[in-house]
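Worked example 2:
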Amino acid sequence: MATDKSDISGWLVRPAGIGWWAGLVAVLAALTTHTVLVTSDGGMDNGIVVDAARTWLDGGSPYDDEHFLYFPSAVMAAAPQALLPRSVLDVLVPVAVVLALALGWMCALLLHRVPLRSRLAVLGLLGLAAGFAPFAQLVRLGNWTVTAVLALPLCLLLASRGRWVAAGAVIGVAVALKPLLAPMVLLFLFARRWGALAPVVLVPAVSSVVAAFFLPDPTGFLTQTLPFLFTADDAFLRLYEAGPAAVLPRLGVPQALAQALAVAAAAVGVGCAYRRWRGPGPEPLRLAETSAGLMLSAFLVSRPSYNHYLLVVVPLLLAGLPYAGSVTRRPWFWLALVPQLPGVTWPWLESGKRRAFRDAVTLCVLAGTVAYHAVRGARGAPRDGVGAGGAADGWRAATEGAVRP
């Protein structure tokens, strides 16, 4: 890992001044305040889950709403929100989402041994909030994807410190809330951490079975939600799905062929992720890039697949920028994010009906970049001795060098 003054890494890891932090706080406060003023129930997506919990408390089945795509355990988790006044949720949820996003960024930094008071800590979160459209969209929607944005870097941070069972428990809880991180089972299989697999599987399974007994329709997830996910053609959801299986048919590709291409791309992505896990480089970098490859592969084939899912992987990869062997050193990583720049008008793609096309470009280019890097780019990465253990000394040396003339 390069941290000398001639490399961007040395500049990024030096302490940020008070003005930098003031700018970050101002941006996050403005985003949060705006969201409080324009949303209800903490956001449309959070409202779907809360309404499902309210339906259950009133004696109905939460799965009567076809847009409620969560496990029964999520109904119980949302019940406390259902008891709160809407005016409280309007304030509480946006603040909680922003805090969770910030905590997820902090965990990603700690995973890569980047000081929390560094310039990258400030600029990275500022760039995500002001320069990456899915960040603000996730805050406005109040989508429970934010649980995965926090859980994944926390899981990898624990795993990098040898606490694999705790890491598995974190994934298990996240899946119980929203099954977005289910593909992370493969990471535990790659690492042959059989004991840590138990909480990954048992926490969501047991919590959902127990919660289902309290629902009027205990099998609603199996009889209504799963068939809807696999066979339904929801006009509303389709407009925002970014996966190839949803976007290609809108361009005239037969549905069966589009699905086959998506599955093939996902399979290649999983193979590349395994290659990255077995490849060179510091363990934190291998953990982050392997996990990103697995999640992007899942996003290629899953239905639905939205642009705010990208927040599960982008901060995790961005925090590894100081590593010379990081995928973020590739220009295509940054080019993939260009369609998500807020304030840029893309002709014929600005309406809600066509936004999914530019989201699909970001998803596919980012997935391809991570997969290519897993096979080709990491060959020249330093071995483990330069990373997880020895990195901390490099960060401290670079930080101390900042005070010298």
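Residues 86-111 form the longest helix (26 residues). Residues 1-6, 384-405 have pLDDT under 50 and may be disordered.
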